[in-house]
Design goal:
mainly alpha
Length: 266
């Protein structure tokens, strides 16, 4: 984006037309000019349309690298009632890029989310962002909280808490401990979807141990879709290595063949 284009486009964020502001934000996200930062932050401070807030976050994630002022502008959005749970999780992930290392306001706010009792995906993302900012204590705190919950007699058979702790262990690449928790998920879960997710994650864990026969076993039990196999390879490159093993390769091909056949028939 040349400076003349930026000079014309960025001021349009002050337009009273919500659709115009959305178009400008989409343009700025695509171009990610750091020179627009001050204008975007000013517009964010007075933005009244909740549905546009995450577009500001998307721009900041693309253009503001280790910016104290941008991170401070993002933090109040965690309390905004127009952002849903997934939006806030995305915002917390963006803070890992936007906030400077050891950024005290961000670190305190993220610890607050964990201390407030969020042990689900937002709590995990908060702990991972804390690690990115140089504070590893969030992960340990979250793991201790989940372990304490699982020690309680009434929660020892709670598959959800085992799943939460397994997700944390997967994120920290502790595959041996994750296997134990994922097996508990399968033992106690009443949900077919939760069981399938656990089986796919067990395949990931076994791939990291190069135990290919177990990878195949869990994949066969999960009966993944072609899209799920693609996602596994994108999330974890080790799964791409697993997919090249002869028996696993044959299984993957058998899953993908119906889709390939349809495409060839067109």
């Amino acid at each position: 984006m040349c400076s003349s284009d930026l000079a014309k486009v960025a001021p349009l964020l002050s337009s009273p037309d919500r659709n115009m502001r959305e178009v400008v934000l989409d343009y700025l996200i695509a171009a990610a000019p750091p020179q627009a930062l001050d204008t975007v932050l000013q517009a964010l401070s007075v933005e009244s349309e909740g549905k546009l807030l995450m577009l500001y976050v998307d721009y900041l994630a693309a253009a503001a690298d280790e910016s104290d002022v941008a991170a401070k502008a993002m933090l109040p959005l965690l309390d905004h009632d127009r952002l849903d749970y997934n939006d806030k999780k995305k915002l917390v992930a963006a803070l890992g890029k936007v906030a400077p290392k050891s950024h005290d306001p961000s670190i305190k706010r993220l610890h607050g989310l964990i201390d407030g009792g969020d042990v689900d995906s937002l709590g995990l993302q908060s702990a991972l962002t804390l690690r990115t900012l140089g504070d590893k204590s969030g992960l340990k705190k979250l793991q201790n909280t989940l372990s304490d919950q699982l020690r309680k007699s009434q929660q020892k058979r709670d598959s959800k808490n085992y799943e939460r702790r397994a997700n944390l262990l997967l994120a920290t690449e502790d595959y041996t401990e994750a296997i134990d928790d994922l097996e508990k998920v399968i033992e106690f879960s009443q949900s077919a979807l939760t069981t399938r997710k656990a089986q796919l994650n067990l395949a990931r864990c076994e791939a990291h141990k190069r135990r290919w026969s177990k990878v195949l076993d869990y994949l066969q039990k999960a009966s993944p879709t072609p899209e799920e196999l693609t996602a596994l390879g994108q999330e974890d490159p080790v799964m791409l290595e697993a997919f090249q093993q002869d028996k696993i390769k044959a299984f993957v091909q058998s899953v993908r063949e119906p889709k390939d056949a349809k495409e060839k028939a067109r």
